[in-house]
Amino acid sequence: MTAKVIDGKAFAANVRAEVAAHVARLKAEKGITPGLAVVLVGEDPASKVYVGAKDRTCQELGLHSKKITLPAETTQDELIAVVQQLNADASIHGILVQSPPPKHIDEEAVIRAIDPRKDVDGFHPENVAKLVLEDPSGFVPCTPAGCMRLLAAAGVETNGAEAVVIGRSMIVGKPMAMLLVAKNSNATVTIAHSRSKDLPAICRRADIVVAAVGRPDMVKADWIKPGAVVIDVGINRVDDATKKSGYRLTGDVDYADVAGKCSAITPVPGGVGPMTIAMLMKNTLQAARQLTE
Ligand code: GUN
């Protein structure tokens, strides 16, 4: 079997075009420009790349973008003070503090400081509750929202499907499981993780596998039921001397192995990644609308 490659780049371009059209209309009709503030603390190279991409995408779609870079020594109180200023800034509708922050900062405390109405990451407890309650006024975390959109765009049937989510993070695993089990999706969901007994056997039950563990090439062909759909959330840097950068990106799924067994798969890069940023733009538009209604 040759798997269909789920082209996240192309599907994300559709979402960005939709958002750009709505942004133009909001500007023309109400004079409102959705604004996103992205805060980066420290020098993590991957985070720098993501923050740069978010900033660029805002500009491309006509959103106002404010990029705030703070030194690694920034204290938690200083960071929370920056968040509070952004909470009070009427030109900013969405606030994102890039994860992970340096170790001396309690990320949970920073997230709780963000006005939930501006929490476009969907990490604040109020938005986590709204996700569980299936309340559409909440913000859905961008990566799992992007995965759901990819499944829909690729025509994958979730109703009654067995889905296995590998990973239980607050950023991806848990919200992904909530979205899959929600009444507009109706999958039967298992959340597996590093302590799960016999992960390959759990995975083999799945019609839909979502891998979000951060372990390069972990999921192998013999974990996959023939014809399953595989969504690879991992973006891992592995050393590669043949590359100018010295590394290459690979997912949590051993793509070359698994592609022969599944019916559809997302590539890394070019799968979930572009969709995540597109959904962030969509969330920022939603925030601007809800705050100015
Ligand atoms: N780091 C990796 N993914 C994310 C994300 O979706 N939001 C934030 N704030 N940081 C991240």
Q: Can you characterise this structure?
A:
The chain is of the alpha/beta class. The chain contains ten helices and eleven strands. The strands form three sheets. The chain has a six-stranded parallel beta sheet. A three-stranded parallel beta sheet has the order 3-2-4, sandwiched between helices. Helix 1 runs parallel beside helix 10, helix 6 crosses helix 7 and helix 6 crosses helix 10. Bound molecules: guanine. The site of guanine has 8 residues, from strand 4 and helix 6. Guanine binds next to strand 4 and helix 6.
pLDDT < 50 runs, ≥5 residues: none
**Structure annotation, total helices:** 10
Strand order in space, largest sheet = 1-11-8-7-5-6
Distance between the termini: 50 Å
Structural class: alpha/beta
Taking all residues together, what is the mean pLDDT? 98
Return Rg in Å. 19 Å
Biggest β-sheet description: 6 strands, parallel
Bound molecules: guanine
Principal-axis shape equals globular
- Portion in helices: 40-55%
Strand content: 15-25%
Write the layout of secondary structure elements.
Blueprint: E1 4-5, H1 8-30, E2 35-41, H2 45-61, E3 64-70, H3 76-88, E4 94-97, H4 107-113, H5 125-133, H6 142-153, E5 162-166, H7 173-181, E6 188-192, H8 199-203, E7 208-211, E8 229-232, E9 236-239, E10 247-250, H9 255-258, E11 264-265, H10 272-292
Bound molecules: guanine.
Residues 96-99, 121, 142-143, 171 line the site of guanine.
Brief descriptors of the model:
293 residues; alpha/beta; 6-stranded parallel sheet; 16% strand; binds guanine
